[in-house]
Specification:
Largest sheet of chain A: 2 strands, antiparallel
Keywords (chain A): Cell inner membrane, Cell membrane, Membrane, Transmembrane, Transmembrane helix, Transport
Radius of gyration of chain B: 25 Å
Helix content of chain B: 10-25%
Protein name (chain A): sn-glycerol-3-phosphate transport system permease protein UgpA
CATH superfamily of the largest domain in chain B: P-loop containing nucleotide triphosphate hydrolases
Helix content of chain A: over 70%
Radius of gyration of chain A: 24 Å
Strand order of the largest sheet of chain B: 6-7-8-3-9-10
CATH class of chain A: Mainly Alpha
Strand content of chain A: under 5%
Largest interface: A-B, 19 and 25 residues
Transmembrane segments (chain A): 12-30, 75-94, 106-128, 156-180, 201-227, 266-287
CATH superfamily of chain A: MetI-like
Shape of chain A: globular
Strand content of chain B: 25-35%
Strand order of the largest sheet of chain A: 1-2
Function (chain A): Part of the ABC transporter complex UgpBAEC involved in sn-glycerol-3-phosphate (G3P) import. Probably responsible for the translocation of the substrate across the membrane.
Number of domains of chain A: 1
CATH architecture of the largest domain in chain B: 3-Layer(aba) Sandwich
Domain ABC transmembrane type-1 (chain A): 71-283
Number of helices of chain A: 12
CATH topology of the largest domain in chain B: Rossmann fold
Structural class of chain B: alpha+beta
Number of strands of chain A: 2
CATH topology of chain A: MetI-like fold
Shape of chain B: elongated
Number of strands of chain B: 20
Oligomer: heterodimer
Number of domains of chain B: 2
Number of helices of chain B: 8
Distance between the termini of chain A: 31 Å
Largest sheet of chain B: 6 strands, mixed
Amino acid sequence: MEKRAIFQGRLLPFALVAPQLVVTLVFFYWPASQAVWQSFLQEDAFGLSSEFVGFANYRDLFAKADYYRTIGTTAFFSALVTALSLSIALFLAVQADRQLKGATAYRTLLIWPYAVAPAVAGVLWFFMFQPSLGLVSQGLRGLGFTWNPLLDSTDAMALVVMAATWKQVSYNFLFFLAGLQAIPKSVIEAAAIDGARPVRRFWTIVFPLLSPTTFYLFVVNVVYVFFDTFGIIDATTAGGPAKATETLVYKVYSDGRVGGDLGGSAAQSVILMVIVIALTAVQFRFIERKVQY
Amino acid sequence: MAEVVLTGVGKTYAGGVTAVTDVEFTVPDGAFCVLVGPSGCGKSTLLRMIAGLETITTGTVSIGGRVVNAVEPAERDIAMVFQNYALYPHMSVYDNMAYGLRNRGTPKAEIETRVREAARVLELGDLLARKPRQLSGGQRQRVAMGRAIVRKPQVFLFDEPLSNLDAKLRVQMRVEIRRLQRSLATTSVYVTHDQLEAMTLADMLVVMNKGRVEQIGAPLDLYRRPETLFVAGFIGAPPMNLIDVAIGPDGLRPVAGDAGIVGGLGIAVPATGARLGIRPEHLHVVGDEPAPEGGIALSYTVSAVEAVGAETFLHGRLGATGPDVVIREPGTIAAAPGTVRRVVARRDDLHLFDRETGRRIPLDA
């Protein structure tokens, strides 16, 4: 039996998909193709003329040590933020999943940070950790720690990692909580009768059953750290000190907007685009196959 | 092997809702005990209290002579089969069955032997490498059984294990569960809302209603001598005919409709009224012969006839306008709708209940 609805006219189907197509074309394909085209051009110092240079921008990029350093920084930053935000969120979700009094209020409070814009979050953390005025900095100094994210690159990295993690925990928490609640209670009870203590139950039953959620969140988090942390980095450290917190996406901005190297910046965006496409492809592949139980 | 003893067991939830009140019974070692009742009667709560999945508000549960109120489910030496099977979806059939043994540190070779043995008994041998989602409902059910039997627990608990299966498979699995329980001789407590399942499986039947035990006994004893109106109406299919009656000048008469009962029972009926119970299979359509000694005769207006071959069901009314009564006659009988027939029942097959309290009024006194 035919289950699909058949539209008689020729125009109606196109009219129905048009808004979606227009949005995608205007906001993705057009800027993306501009970036690709731009990455093959080189502008003069005054931005008056540009010439086609082929892959020169890309060659330049990979010839410079600082691009590799940025890749390293990004890898370190994303590994840390993803690992921290996933594990903290999972821990909190497991706690919230237990039937405790006040669980609803607790859940709501945990979700709030997600409603804070990245730049605002960045400013918040910047103020809290500002070396001379910040509340936390003063506390740290009182405890005998020297703390200066404006000068010390480790402190700066710690600050952006904390801010980016804090921002992402809410999102992960929501998904983990939903994932936990989708696990049938009777399966957990069966495991309890089967003699598995809570910790073992978690690792042998709950965690494997959560794996589709975990994998989805892993990809989403990596993409988040790659792109959406721009606002946080810009507001807290602006990539410094000495580019210690400059990630790939921040470098696109600083080379292009600040440094005026549009071609090089475009080449970097194209590389980032390829990374995201690859990540998404991997995600779909895996979700279809491996992470099924 | 162990006996399960419940003493004054009750459950009240935090919100103040009482699910189970003062339940008291003993399941002898090796017996198959079925808790039966309508949904919401507290039977599942009671089972979960025996399993340790619900806390016990009052009273004690003991398994094999040990009070287990404060004992974790894992330490109670029980195994449970859930309504939705609760198989571990990410594990193979083998791992599902081995999981409980591994958690208890059973040696690998021993696990292998026990799982293979269970798989042989349950005919799961070819499916050990499959995941639960690759199995049919009946196979999943058997894996859930396998997971219970490999552990060799003191007690099996079943929570409506057959209600997700289709009718044919349900009958098949019912027989299989009974056979398995007999051969293992493991004490079992089984919850169901299906009275037919309860009757066929149980050594000992516990009928529950509104959180209380209505009656406990062997299935046929409950069928033959229900102590309360609830049990009378619940056990047996089609259900017992229950007719409100009062004592008139000429003996018993129905409250509603015209007089249709001939023959008094010669016993005192409470002023509040009584309810007469007669099972459909104990009413017989007869010609002019008198009612059996001490029994009753009824005038019956047939309204519909259902012949299913082995037996015939008659639907109709007592007298011309009295209460509905169903009759179940073996074989086929000729009875046209609209005709009035004479129906008799033996005294031994009559049940009388106090309408107010629902308790049985003995007829054989």
